[in-house]
Amino acid sequence: MGYVQEAFATNWIAPLGPNVNGMEHDLESFLGNNVHVAALSSGTAALHLALVILGVKAGDEVICQSMTFSASANPIVYQGASPVFVDSEEITWNMSPEYLEEAILDRIKNGKKPKAIIVVHLYGMPARMTEIMTIARRYEIPVVEDAAEALGSTYKGRAVGTFGDMGILSFNGNKIITTSGGGALVSANAEYIDQARFLATQARDYAPHYQHSQIGYNYRMSNVCAGIGRGQMEVLTKRVDQRRYNFDFYKKALADINGIQFIADPGKDFYSNHWLTTILVDSNDFSIIDIQQALNDDNIDCRPLWKPMHMQPVFKNALYYGNGVSERLFDKGLCLPSGSNLTDEELNRVVIRIREVVNMKKSFKNIANNPISCVTFPLISALSLFL
Ligand SMILES: Cc1ncc(COP(=O)(O)O)c(C=O)c1O
Predict the structure, then answer these.
(1) pTM (2 decimals)?
(2) Cα–ligand 1 centroid distance for 311 (angstroms)
């Protein structure tokens, strides 16, 4: 709150100002690895600028993880380029290194070497960056990490968003920290970040009058939003702890239910901020729809996982390389309530509702499978109406 008040008190209600510099500095210190940061108006703007800076143009192809939110792929189309979607792997739900390489080789064979690779750290889970960077370097294709959902996550002890040629963050309202709306571009290459700041403020040439030699954008973060962001940076670690607590709580409380799986950190190299706790439902007794309906009926918000981009009507003509992992995740996955301020009581309410519906569906199944109870259950139910 102090940073926002200061912005008003000093009349810095502008797309520039001390909070913007402060936010960039705070992020640089948090992410480490000598990165530079440009604070921008959104994560989508950051991705768009990354592609502009990498020279993505009309007719180019850009590889993008299919299992993601549409904002990861849309900027490819803003540039007149075409997305080439790559499937996820089972262990991280993120880009499969195997299909990434297959896509690159096939596109090269067709005379269309991809201009960039957009890899996503979905729901906070780090993608396998060592393998992905090795493949990308082998074919000399730049990598943009979409870490919009993963601020606070690390891979091999290093902040995600700092492995690729560039990384992006989002501070949208639903993210682990928010500036009400905002984003950032991250890179160890200072020139990229200078270019991003220049392009984000309408590409104004260094001249005493308004002069432009390039097309620019209005993509800078405002000093007021950055003030909110600076306050949020102070609680980021706490937020990560809270989100991870939610995940552990649900996992422990539902561990004994066969047919509900959690995506846990796949090993010591992976540290997810668990932005959202997600589950996969794979059972003959109950379905994802049963759980979703039961929670919604009780006014508990839960959502399906992101629908893969290669299944989206808007991308129906796009190329896709994979074997259906992301389709299966979409079919079976659900995001549970995951806010940073959930109490144990609220988390328990979700758990109780899930257990209730699972038990109910299981007993229906038993009754249906048991000819004796098929007769006795309706009889008892009917009798109970009169007793
Ligand atoms: C994976 C992913 N990429 C990109 C974005 C875009 O971020 P923003 O909403 O800040 O534009 C989001 C979130 O909205 C996201 O979840």
Answers:
(1) 0.93
(2) 19
